Amino acid sequence: MLRGLRAAAVMALSVLAVPVAAKADVAVQISTRSQTMDVFVDGMHYYSWPVSTGRRGYSTPHGRYSAKRMERMWYSTKYDSAPMPYSIFFRGGYAIHATQHTQYLGRPASHGCVRLAPSHARQLYSLVSSHGMRRTRISVY
Question: Which domain holds residue 132?
Answer without folding.
Answer: 22-140
